[in-house]
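Now for a concrete sample entry.
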Amino acid sequence: MTSYSHRGFSLVTNSKSIFNGSGLRIWALVLRQIYLLRSSWPRILELIYWPTIQMVLWGLITSFLVNESSWIAQAGGVLIAGVLLWDILFRGQIGLTLAFLEEMYSRNLGHLFTSPLRPWEFIFSLMVISLLKTSIGITGAICFALLLYQFNIFDLGLPIIAFFFCLIAMGWAIGLMISGLLIRFGLGAESLAWLAIFALAPISCIYYPLSILPDWIEPIAQLIPSTYIFEGMRSILIDNNFKTELLWRALILDGVYLLVGIVVFLWFFRSARIRGLIHQIGE
């Protein structure tokens, strides 16, 4: 009896020991992630960001479709065109940012800039890479839109060329700003590469006209180049009217955005070089 009790006590003791050991290890891993969240505002922002953006975007789409179902019946291709043009903007930005991130992942920035490579040459190469990736990606989407839905984006005519370069230039500008922030904050800000562009989706009026936005948001949307591109796209598809003033506004804003993006990137790059951080980026 004594032997049995002793064995039972030993079994219970070992079980508690195993449970406590596993619990501590599990808690240690959870605590590590909590510390990461607490020390990195981009990670916390990402958790809040996606549900909020989805709610705002689809809430606006729903409120528009409820009152304007006849509009969709007249121009069913507008939504597909919006998706294709938005993909140009998205891929322009993500193509540039990921090309920069790949250099960070491989810890190659220090090696690149010990060569005669100049910062403006690096920026130009990122733009060319983005243009190549975007062209490849959007070609596949255009082909599937034609095969599956009999929608040809080239029905927009020559303005599609201007729309393409306006949107990809805006993507480059945002990508350069994000790359600058990555130089400043390191890979802790990596999530910005994915979430920054989507913050502009609700106010870019991709799937609905500018007039559907609340009055206090409209002035903000009018500062975004993509808003004028999507308004111009709908004007062609619905009214068969190409509004050149919308294109000019987009071009002017794109010039400002690109200038700001280049200045931000060069500012953070220069700061990192002076502080001797180029070789440490990515570690």
Observations:
- The radius of gyration is 25 Å.
